[in-house]
Amino acid sequence: MNKRTTALSLGITLLVLIAGTVGGSFYMLKYALSPENRGKDMAGSLTYMEEMYPQITPWVDSLQKAHALRDTFITAPDGTRLHAFYARASRPRKETAVIAHGYTDNAIRMFHIGYMYNRSLDYNILLPDLRYSGLSGGNALQMGWLDRKDVMQWIDTAPALFGDSIEAVVHGISMGAATTMMLSGEQLPAYVRCFVEDCGYTSVWEQFSKELKERFGLPPFPLLYTASWLCQWKNGWNFHEASAEKQIARCHKPMLFIHGDKDDFVPTWMVYEVYKAKPDPKALWIVPNAGHATSYLLYPEEYTQRVKRFVEDNLNDRP
Fold it and tell me: Whole-prediction pTM value?
């Protein structure tokens, strides 16, 4: 084989590798950020939640009967229409919970946490549908990074819903927990007093690296790098910058960290990393025998009491 033929062969091989990597990156981005989204099935989500958490059924029924569970919409700066449910406490109260849902979920799939705050603790609640979920617009999930800005916008609307003197906790599970940590590093209104994150990941890069290895047996290079560049081009953010761990290092408001010790989707080691990165004040509860996002399901009373103590210890403190 002469040098010319060898160079041509190498060139073709390189083009095939590049094409495969680019094609794989497009596939990965669609697979990860635009999956078939169960969060769009509102009726199915409510059925599922009432089967998993039967205690919420009379609460939801009573809210609906009284027309107390309401819809509200806002428009993001990029024109995306965003939806949330909200309900007021049984009497005028300043205590308010903003509740963020997980990956391929929706606000309805956080009704158990809404029940905890509204029914058990008698707080106002605001439950946004994140992008590409529920009744909100958007063509892709944003893994908490762009969602942090949307939740900040929801936080800004909360006084108009519940009164100017509110004091708020932000509580998220899974991707919603990552969203909570990511927004905690931003400049927030003084009425946001504290945070609860339940099984959130350290960063999109580390979570996707773990999934790429487990699901496809592939290392981060080169596919995760090119998919991250593609995400930057399509969505305006990349996997490296979408870091809860970096954001939380800038947060000086109280945060409660909750994570199951049997979580193999967002591995338990991640909570130790974000907890270490967070300045005081903070608290940590490692939940025995709990898998991913199952801590409330397994221990509803203890979960409620731990959250109640933490939030009430911090919600009325003035910065």
Answer: 0.93
